[in-house]
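Schema walkthrough. Field components (list of strings):
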Amino acid sequence: MTTAILAEDEPAQMTELARLLRELWPELRIVAMCEDGLSALEALDTYCPQVAFLDIRMPGASGIEVARAASGKVHVVFVTAYDEYAVTAFETGAADYLLKPVTPARLGQAIERLRARVVTNASTDLSRLLDALDAQMLARQSRGGLKWVTANLGDTVKMFPIEDVLFFQAEDKYVRVVTTEDEAVIRTPLKALVKQLDPEVFWQIHRSVIVRAHAIDRVQKDELGHFHARLKSRTEALPISTAYLSRFRGM
Amino acid sequence: MNTSLFQPLPPDAVAGTTWGPFRYRRYPVFSLPWLRGRFVVSATAVVLYAVFSGLGQLAAGNTWENAAAVAGYFALGVLGMFTIGPALATWVRHQGFNRRLETWRVIFAVILGFAGGMIADAWASSQMKRPMGMKEVPASKRKISDLDEATLRLGALVGGFGYFACGGGLASLAYFSEQRRLRARTATLARLESDMRLTVLQAQIEPHFLFNTLASIRPLIRQDASRAESALDALAAHLRAVIPQMRTSGTVTSTLGQQADICASYLDLMKVRMGERLRVEINVPPDLRAQPFPPLILLSLVENGIKHGIEPKPGPGKIILKASIAGAELQVSVIDDGVGLKDGLSGGLGLANVREQLEMRYQTAARLSIATHAEGGTMAEIVIPVQYPPA
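Field assembly_structure (string):
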């Protein structure tokens, strides 16, 4: 008998998927119905199912994260509301996908394929598909534009428009966010920030510094031969490491 | 009756100095408060000048009665000239014609008033001649050189311009500049509002929202037909509220009640989708429902609460929408017990637009604050001035 888990955070959809599966694939045994990504990860461990139907956007852990844990062991079927962008990633055929709302006809096709695969037990490596999906999620987020830097200050949240930020500087566990008149600390590591910032606008000039290129007034060399960037509207001198110095040649 | 004429203009529609005696310029040009303030300023200047010229008459040996008559007629004539046109234009504005009609009638009123002012001035001048001891000289007996004649004409021309400027000409220019500024302001507000509409619309027709909603409604048709019906109604009502409509003019006036209803239909849909997981509490007192409230910004905050607070959080979540009045302020807040705002970089939550709209409509009188709630989650609060005391 084939075993399956379902992961879907919206109960109405979960019930419906379970009903359709019971109707179209009576031999399938649904061993767990999970309302979030974390319990789906647990269920993978506990039941080692052969099939997993995964919603992509879920609280706790996304369907993509759950699929990573399942890759190579479980036949994954994504159930997604996403549009054609994401669908192109599935065309590789590594995993099947169902578009919401799920129709019995389309689910029937997926079941046919799953039955064949379960028999041969050829579950595929999903890492390339998952990387592609991850990249698309990230692109989708940055298309909305990174517009704010959010810093928790005790009970309130301080929000800086990204246009106001002059530089980010890592200090111990925190990162300082500095604008012309204000500053705050955030816990997002510099490494993660670099990936989300526009590399034309913000330049990394040191292991611990990302600066708005337009805010730089001049570059100075001190007695020890170290380079520093001086800003137009702040007094700080920001260190420039030699590895990043090439950006300033010809400035 | 056009009541907005009794309200000060928004600061960005005001031109020129507004300190001290010129405070009246904060009111619309050709409004009653404006006319009152302008009259006080011009009357003070004219009376002072009249007193000085009366004193001049005394110094030149004229009698008290004559000096007073000269000063009095002078003041009457000049004030008439300064005031009749603007007063007529003010009367026109308070009739509440549409803008095109109003503009033409205001111009006509100023010209008519100026003509009336000329007559008043001519009458006052003729009255002043006797007490000043001047005699009428028949034109045939006047001895005036060509140069004097030219100088007099130039003087009359310059004086005429000056009189026209003070007698409503400058005020008319200010009136046109005010109209232009108000139009620009309306355009900016309309742009911000349509930007917001677009942002909200993007969130609504985002595949995640739309297809998940459809996928949740689909099984209801079989299980609970009446709930499916009401869910479809809520979806239709919701899309109708957020899809831009062809509108003929400017910005729509919306009330807190309408905006709360739009949020309620959205939250109804989210309840259909999330089931027991989502609890909703809407507490907008009935007497606050008529308060004017800018469109869609409340929905934007509620969506943020769901999308960035409750959806990413495993387990149940609650969203509270409440409104209250504190002093002269209307406070509307959206509270969720979700994951809270993570620090770091975040996408456009539509908050920039919310801030801009509030600033445009209420200047410094409005605030948007975001706070991490004590029991976790996030609270977004909008504070705007109360528009009238609730009944």
